[in-house]
Amino acid sequence: MKKIDKLILDAFIGPFLITFLVVVFILLNINMLKYFDDIIGKGLDSLVLGQLFFYFAIFTVPTAMPLAVLLSSLIAFGNLGEHFELTAIKSAGISLVRILRPIFFFVLILTGVAFYANNNLVPKAALEAYSLLYDIKQKKPALELREGTFYRGIDNLSIKVNKKFKEDEKALKDVIVYDHRKNDGNKEVTVADSGRMYTILNERYLKFELYNGYNYMEGAGNEREMTGQRRGNNESMSRSKFTKTQVVFDLASFQLQTTDKKWFQGNRIMRNLSELESDMDSLKTEVLNQRLSYYQGKMSYFNFYMKDDSLILPPEVYQHKLHRDSTSRIPFMGRGSVNKSSALSQQNTGVADSSKLKGEIGQKSMLPKERKKALQEPLSTNFMKRDSISTEVLSKPLVKFDSLGLAKIDSILMLPPGRDALQGAANTARQVKSQVMNSNSTVDNFNKELITFKIQWHKIVASSLACVAMFLIGAPLGAIIKKGGLGVPFLVSILFFIIYYVFTMQGEKLAKQGSIGVPMGVWMADIILFCVGLLFLRQARADARLFEADFYSVVLDKLSRWYADWKQAKAKPA
């Protein structure tokens, strides 16, 4: 490694590590503020909080890495330009592209690390973080009794304490406990002059030691309670005095319960590229199944009108039907039959001879004339046709009617439809409309979910390559600004990060709405920043002074001269 490469890398790596940690810390605080109300007051130990913060810190890596590259490259080249080190290097005949080369290769390595983190670490961290956050949300707040108010945090219990002592947190004064575990009202009450409260067995149980009090129990008489007779107001009431008693309550609902992570694995942010591809294939199959069932259910929509009309399946639906029919027969066939079925499936898709496919179509249920016509038509026109008339119906002989029978049929058909017939037709039409709308709604929902999984698939790659785009902006811009430190570079990096964030959100929104394609929506921000970075690189190679007042004064002066010349030329007669 040459000394110049070492100098450039030393100027970049240090600011990158610091800015990356700072950005992760800032983004982590922003994310955790959204769940602050769900975490505070739950009595969580430091280990659980540490795990939650660690998982969310990994979850912020896709956003923190490009921003850290942008900020560190601005700082590095701003410092080199401020201390005239870039000027000294250029005076030695070394171009700016050669100066950027070592950091560019280092950024490519960071891009690979970012891709690995996005594809492997972030989905696992998201699964752990959100499953743990769900368990924290389900956990009850920590046990806290307040003076003079009833505490109902423990299931089926109401506890009231009139006074607590700061010297001894376990000591209580004037305790009242209502026991509702039998679900029969306030019939079991314990009143004590004083007591002590603390947890036992690793905080799984709450123990009360009560002194100088009474137990009140209201209920039916023992004999009537045993025989199931509870009539009138003949209920018994018992009171027992105690000097000291101990009561233990279960605190299982206050413990952090772990939920099985399989209930969270279906979310798109918890899937890697291969899993997303599998999910997208499953969604496409569901869409094709829904469309195929719609076409196949056409016969149930029409009882008389268009009942014998043929139907042409779309190519993708037809291919899916062939594939599904071939795979559904595999478990019931031998090895030789499976190979034969696979060969037939290849023939049906157009790989083999088209005459065999025509023979298969000819064997389908068609009228003799239609069957002959289908065999004569080219494969590209008849491979999608399916007739709705079954072979069993066509094989039956036609019933011949005489003139009297035909006259009776005509007289019946000429009768005006009755009220029941019209009502039945209207009900059938409504049912058909409802079925079609439900089918379309299901397909639309599957397509929307498919778009979200496609967006996530592209985001894993696009967010990784954003490091290169940010470097192409930060390094030339730092060489142009020639200001180090955290002042100007921080402001410029925040500006471009906001631009990147806005274009990313807007692109994803348009992609979800179907206004633009998913690749265009996700890659929009990277493409725009990449073009801006190339523009800055061109200006930096030409030693442009974009952020100096003299540069803009010269530009304005040139524009004013051009306008004056143009106005003078226009005033001259032709």
Estimated helix fraction: 55-70%
The count of β-strands is 8
Number of helices: 20
Helix-strand string: HHHHHHEEEEEHEHHEHHHHHEHHHHHH
* Major β-sheet strand ordering: 1-2-3-4-5-6
Mean pLDDT: 75
User: What summary fits the major beta sheet?
Assistant: 6 strands, antiparallel
Alpha-carbon Rg, integer: 39 Å
State the secondary-structure class: alpha+beta
Strand content: 5-15%
First-residue to last-residue Cα separation: 67 Å
- Unreliably modeled segments: 221-227, 333-395
- Number of separate structural domains: 4
* Shape, per Cα inertia axes: flat
Offer a quick outline of the entry.
This protein is 62% helix and 12% strand. With 574 residues, the protein is α+β, with helices and mostly antiparallel strands. Helix 6 crosses helix 17 (419-481), helix 12 packs antiparallel against helix 13 and helix 17 (419-481) packs antiparallel against helix 18 (488-513).
Description:
Helix content is 62%, strand content 12%. It contains 20 helices and eight strands. It has 574 residues and is α+β, with helices and mostly antiparallel strands. It has four domains: 3-138 and 464-539, no CATH class; 150-254, no CATH class; 271-448, no CATH class; 544-574. The strands form two sheets. A six-stranded antiparallel beta sheet has the order 1-2-3-4-5-6.
Features:
single chain, 20 helices, two-stranded antiparallel sheet, 12% strand, 4 domains, alpha+beta, 574 residues, 62% helix, six-stranded antiparallel β-sheet
